[in-house]
Amino acid sequence: MSTTVHPRTRTHTLLDSPYGPLTLVATDGVLSALYMTDHRHQPPRETFGEEVDTGSFAEAVRQLGEYFDGTRTEFDLPLHLEGTPFQRIVWAELQRIPYGETLSYGALAGRLGKPGASRAVGLANGRNPVSIIVPCHRVIGASGSLTGYGGGLDRKQRLLAFERGTEDDTPALF
Predict the structure, then answer these.
(1) What does the pLDDT read at residue 153?
(2) Tag placement on the chain: N or C end, fewer CB within 10 Å?
(3) How far is Cα 58 from Cα 36, in angstroms, rounded to an integer?
(4) Is 4 helix (H, G, I), strand (E, B) or coil?
(5) CA 172 to centroid of chain Cα atoms
(6) Which are the contacts of 150, defined by CB distance < 8 A and separation ≥ 6?
(7) Nearest residue to 93 via CA among 141, 130, 125
(8) Under a CB-based contact definition with an 8 Å cutoff, are residues 134 and 128 in contact?
């Protein structure tokens, strides 16, 4: 008896945002990626599937709009995250960092019970496929420095300042 493997259906749409155009990708109708212009580790565009109108991503578009207008501090969307088991654990922990707060890579590794794994946490953080919604921008260096962000350090700095409601771009550890 053979099993039939059905290929996954991927679609994408483009959305304007205060941080530039965003590409939303769904796998079998579930959000699986959010990429910014010139996003590091972005797969080839031909893997995004057919381009559809934003209506196919209505809930993600609504929640992102609420985030950008300052009325949403947490996302409540089903996500299809493809990654290693360790990456998925890191991405789940990222979602527990409160809005407007930051955490160092080392502190995040400690939360996972792996205090010596800050580099591995940083690598997993950098491979987060759903930026903003899975808030990898809230992770900073041990000294408080802004280090690495798939969407670029300028966007990271702007997102952190936006969440703190301040023009002061110096992140604060908690």
Answers:
(1) 74
(2) N
(3) 18
(4) coil
(5) 20
(6) 35, 36, 39, 40, 41, 42, 126, 128, 131, 136
(7) 125
(8) yes
For 6, which DSSP code?
P
The DSSP output letter for 87 is H
The whole-number pLDDT of residue 138 equals 93
- pLDDT on residue 25: 96
What pLDDT is recorded for position 135? Answer: 94
Looking up tokens 């702007």 gives 158
CA distance 39 to 61: 19
* Residue 64 · residue 132 · CB < 8 Å: yes
CB 26, CB 47: distance < 8 Å? no
* Stretches in the chain below the pLDDT threshold 50: 168-174
Rounded to whole angstroms, how far apart are CA atoms 159 and 38? 17
pLDDT in the model for residue 48: 92
**What is the pLDDT at residue 170?**
43
- In which element (H, E) is residue 11 found? strand 10-15
Residue holding tokens 């969440």? 163
Looking at the annotation, which residues are catalytic? 136
CA-based Rg of the chain, rounded to a whole angstrom? 16
